[in-house]
């Protein structure tokens, strides 16, 4: 199996200027993710888990280290040094990110939000509509809501919509930032089913989960984050 993502010696500091303080959120993090595999990261709040994903997704720029991603379009690319244009391309076509928070757009209906994710990738409108309907049904988002604006949705509905939008694209690499944090057991199971399906279709995943039971059976490897360092789970 080939390596899809390789992180070497990643360091990320945050400067809190008002407090004249510097936080080292990531301390020499290394990670290797094989194509088609799913690595799960656990760890205490504030240990640096989200920061890793945000560095990969290009939201944060690390101070040191490399994030090699084997892109379809660009070949092996260091995401820590990629241009804005390259990051935008990769977000559109290859790398997905699901967090607990929905980035809804004003006056875009729930179904359109999902359809647009596919249209952006070049899908036909009719195909996008069909796929959007399938995934919204899978996540049991009430049909009455499909034509509504998500800013009025409940937290759980927003979250399920967010997951649907990222997963419908079947990205090559999917980053999951505690996507099930505030979901009930039934919705968590739906997410799990889709993760298993996506994996079977070849999506590689790196995810953060607090719920260790959820990770069982879906992750190929579990890593633990502690004080900005990543290690293999024991026991
Ligand atoms: N944008 C930022 N500016 C300043 N400090 C930040 C920023 N993002 C994260 N940090 C700090 O970096 C550290 C790691 O944060 P991170 O969000 O990666 O933790 P986490 O393990 O994902 O936590 P949680 O499980 O609570 O989401 C924390 O001390 C946090 O306060």
From TrEMBL:
SMART domains: AAA. One of its GO terms (molecular function) is ATP hydrolysis activity. Keywords: ATP-binding, Nucleotide-binding. InterPro entries: AAA+_ATPase (IPR003593), ABC_transporter-like_ATP-bd (IPR003439), P-loop_NTPase (IPR027417). Residues 5-233 form the ABC transporter domain. Belongs to the ABC transporter superfamily. PANTHER family: ALPHA-D-RIBOSE 1-METHYLPHOSPHONATE 5-TRIPHOSPHATE SYNTHASE SUBUNIT PHNL, LIPOPROTEIN-RELEASING SYSTEM ATP-BINDING PROTEIN LOLD. This is ABC transporter related. It comes from Alkaliphilus metalliredigens (strain QYMF). The lineage of its organism: Bacteria, Bacillati, Bacillota, Clostridia, Peptostreptococcales.
